[in-house]
Write a structure and sequence with these properties.
- The complex is a heterodimer.
- Chain A is an alpha/beta fold.
- Chain A has 2 domains: 127 residues, Rossmann fold, CATH 3.40.50; 203 residues, Rossmann fold, CATH 3.40.50.11900.
- In chain A, the strands form 2 sheets. In chain A, strands 2-1-3-4 form a 4-stranded parallel beta sheet, sandwiched between helices.
- By secondary structure, chain B is an alpha/beta fold.
- Helices cover 55% and strands 10% of the residues of chain B.
- Chain B is built from 17 helices and 8 strands.
- Chain B has a 4-stranded parallel beta sheet with strand order 2-1-3-4, sandwiched between helices. A 4-stranded parallel beta sheet of chain B has the order 6-5-7-8, with helices on both faces.
- In chain B, strand 5, helix 12 and strand 6 form a beta-alpha-beta unit.
- In chain B, helix 4 crosses helix 6.
- The chains are: A alpha/beta, B alpha/beta.
- Chains A and B meet through helix 3, helix 4 and helix 12 of A and helix 7, helix 8, helix 15 and helix 16 of B.
């Protein structure tokens, strides 16, 4: 069953605004009449970017800068950054110095979730709204925000429905089918995306399972960002089935709804601060609770922890998560990538050995 | 490695050194060693934190701060970093992670440190630093509080940090069973302000051509001031250091052979003394200022010390966009009339390394070339001394022309 990517209509009239982090509040960008697009790296070797950002900095960030520097992101006159980590802050710096855009904003994001931090974050969101209103001469009001909240929530609800199907033992859904749909959800207009996803869910719900197929171990992929479906395919080609992704480009960023009642800005702030956290947030316990929940609900046999090189938050979190997973007797394999497919050959051997030792 | 024995050995070493040459720097190191011993004795409440968090708040409760940076310094002086770093890798820490954070973390996880009462991190530095406290919190089973510094400086930002400091004060009061005494804090802040005034005066003397105390000796002292427990003793050592430099700055004592004046950006590495020797002896190139020694904050409000300390944290040039660093580097380069700048690009530091190109371009605008000296502050396995020296020599040749 194929997702209808052809049906995704690009928005011709709306100005594009690039986003680089799953903590970018899409609702506000939609309410401003913009088309938010999550930007992914090229997956290719970096050319000129390394002259501006050190080679020991996050390869995702360097890849994005390289694309911009080479002129491949010229359609993005507007960018919203999030103060998510050291590498992202430095990308914000070089972007302003060497790329130049019409509109650039960096959104400060707290790391903890207390009421005081929430108030601070609400203020940051209001500042973003004010800047967008000034720049694009629009009125972002409670009604337009609620409409945008409903739109983005609908996407989350549809994914929630789809994920219920993935949880089933006899699910025929492959990770390598679902993963590109998640990638598309962050980079295409939600209006047409939601229609296509509804159709897809209807069709896959009608599909019958094939109990005769050889059982495969069910994997959770955890980490920061994975941009290439080829990585998921590598795991599945090696004999596993990827059923969940605790990634910035996976389930983690799609969990949690924005409350549709009450003050919309505060509701947006609550959702983003309380959604399953990435490793830049304070409190590894929250992250582990989410992973544990996935392991139970999705019947996970093993975890592939994927980090991108020089990603300090993930690399420093790994020893803690590993310890917790070992305590629960969940096998874990750590793979490190550089946002290209260059190391996939080496990974394949390790993945094969890992899958072989899994009990399922 | 027995951490208590290491600290005793450190104290013995520093005592011998200070008694043989009672310079302010040696006395300060001896003081640091004595504080280290007290930390190990475990009789005083301890708080693990980092050097950007104000010691005055912790000391006001009669507790001792353990600064991660200071632990790293002791480990390095006592020659334990290489083995500890290797052992952290066996515990699944990445060799790509910052050695400045990983070495003290590894030492703490090996046991021997008394359990602290509280852990305080802050967002004004790096990602590794924040994760450091997550690990210690799990290991010691103690609470970890994170002070979040807003990206942009404003009065609202100061209020936001002030509220967080008040929460920390409440927690410290609970864990040390000591009521908060604002007058005690005011007294400590007063000492800090007096110390700061001497630091400013020292930095003023360093502007002299030729500089009165060349090389990294000034920087080493000034960087340590914020890694100790604060208070009257630090004030006295700083005053003594100022007087030493004042004597050196007298016309008859100045070393006249200064040919090149350098600004040093970011940390000094351990174990690469040859580079500093070559700079000074072969090229008469003097490090006359470091960005880390610069006093970037206003005098701390002694009447309202928590707000004053919150303001100090918000004013840090490590917070926010790169302009905080570039403006400072540019004005230091001009004020100290340097011919060149060396940025020590520490292997595991994303926060500083990611800004080198912009710093380079900014300093070029005022005619100051910048060398990015790539290496590792603690982990000698990441260093190539011969290659690093060759880069420094090539840079000196350019500056000499």
């Amino acid at each position: 069953m194929e997702f209808n990517y052809e049906g995704l209509k690009p928005s011709s009239s709306k100005p594009l605004i690039g986003m680089l982090c799953s903590y970018s509040p899409e609702e506000i960008l939609y309410a401003a009449g913009l088309q938010p697009v999550r930007i992914y790296g090229s997956g290719k070797t970096i050319k000129r970017g390394d002259a501006y950002l050190y080679s020991t900095l996050c390869p995702y960030v360097r890849s994005i800068f390289d694309l911009a520097f080479e002129g491949h992101l010229n359609d993005f006159k507007n960018m919203v950054f999030v103060n998510s980590c050291d590498a992202m802050r430095r990308l914000y710096d070089v972007w302003r110095h060497y790329i130049k855009n019409d509109f650039i904003h960096i959104l400060d994001l707290p790391r903890a979730t207390s009421e005081d931090k929430l108030d601070y974050y609400v203020q940051q969101l209001r500042d973003l709204i004010r800047r967008l209103e000034e720049e694009f001469r629009v009125d972002i009001n409670p009604d337009s925000l609620r409409e945008a909240i409903r739109l983005v929530n609908h996407t989350r609800q549809l994914f929630h429905d789809l994920f219920q199907l993935r949880k089933k033992d006899d699910s025929n859904l492959w990770g390598s089918q679902i993963f590109p749909i998640m990638l598309a959800s962050m980079s295409t207009p939600k209006e047409s995306f939601n229609q296509m996803l509804e159709q897809y869910i209807e069709e896959v719900s009608r599909m019958e399972s094939h109990p005769s197929e050889t059982p495969r171990p069910r994997l959770l992929v955890s980490g920061s960002i994975v941009e290439q479906t080829e990585f998921i395919k590598l795991l599945e080609d090696s004999g596993a089935r990827v059923v969940a992704e605790d990634l910035c480009t996976g389930i983690r960023s799609l969990e949690g709804m924005v409350q549709e009642e009450g003050d919309p800005v505060e509701a947006i702030a609550r959702r983003y601060l309380n959604r399953p956290p990435c490793s830049r947030m304070k409190g590894v316990e929250r992250r582990y609770q989410f992973i544990k929940q996935i392991i139970e609900e999705y019947g996970i046999h093993g975890v592939v922890y994927h980090t991108i090189k020089f990603c300090d938050p993930e690399l420093m979190t790994y020893p803690l998560l590993r310890k917790e997973l070992e305590r629960e007797n969940i096998p874990v394999l750590h793979l490190e990538g550089d946002c290209t497919m260059g190391s996939y050959g080496q990974m394949k051997t390790r993945v094969g050995a890992f899958i072989e030792m899994l009990e399922y | 490695m027995d951490i208590k024995e290491m600290y005793l050995g450190f104290e013995e070493m520093m005592e011998t050194k200070a008694k043989a040459k009672p310079y302010a720097k040696n006395l300060l190191l001896w003081e640091a060693a004595k504080i280290g011993r007290r930390q190990m004795e475990g009789e005083v409440p301890l708080v693990w934190t980092r050097c950007t968090f104000p010691a005055e708040i912790i000391s006001a409760f009669g507790a001792l701060p353990i600064y991660t940076e200071m632990v790293g310094t002791v480990l390095s002086i006592m020659g334990h970093t290489e083995n500890i770093l290797k052992r952290t890798e066996e515990q699944f820490f990445s060799s790509d992670s910052c050695s400045i954070q990983r070495a003290p973390l590894g030492a703490a996880l090996e046991g021997g440190f008394p359990a602290p009462q509280l852990l305080i991190g802050s967002t004004d530095y790096c990602e590794n630093g924040m994760r450091f406290f997550e690990h210690l919190s799990q290991y010691f089973g103690r609470e970890y509080v994170l002070v979040e510094i807003p990206f942009e400086y404003s009065e609202d930002s100061v209020s936001y940090v002030e509220r967080q400091l008040k929460e920390i004060v409440n927690k410290l009061s609970q864990v040390t069973s000591t009521p908060f005494d604002i007058d005690r804090l005011r007294e400590l802040v007063k000492y800090r302000n007096q110390t700061m005034r001497y630091q400013v005066k020292i930095n003023e003397l360093r502007k002299k051509i030729p500089t009165p105390l060349p090389g990294r000796r000034c920087g080493d002292f000034l960087l340590m001031v914020d890694q100790l427990a604060g208070g009257k003793s630090i004030l006295e050592f700083t005053k003594r250091f100022y007087e030493e430099i004042l004597t050196l700055s007298k016309e008859e004592n100045l070393k006249k052979e200064e040919k090149i004046r350098l600004l040093w950006i970011y940390v000094f590495p351990f174990g690469l003394s040859e580079i500093f020797h070559v700079l000074e002896k072969e090229y008469c190139a003097h490090i006359v200022m470091e960005d880390l020694s610069h006093i970037y904050w206003d005098e701390i409000d002694e009447v309202d010390p928590l707000r004053g300390l919150a303001r100090k944290m918000c004013q840090s040039y490590t917070v926010g966009a790169i302009e905080s660093r570039t403006h400072q580097a540019r004005s230091l380069a001009q004020d100290y009339q340097v011919q060149g700048a060396i940025h020590f690009s520490h292997f595991g530091c994303r926060y500083t390394r990611g800004g080198v190109r912009i710093l380079k371009d900014t300093l070029a605008q005022v005619g100051v070339p910048l060398l990015s000296l790539e290496g590792d502050c603690l982990n000698q396995e990441n260093n190539s001394p011969v290659q690093m020296l060759a880069h420094v020599e090539a840079f000196m040749e350019i500056l000499s022309q």
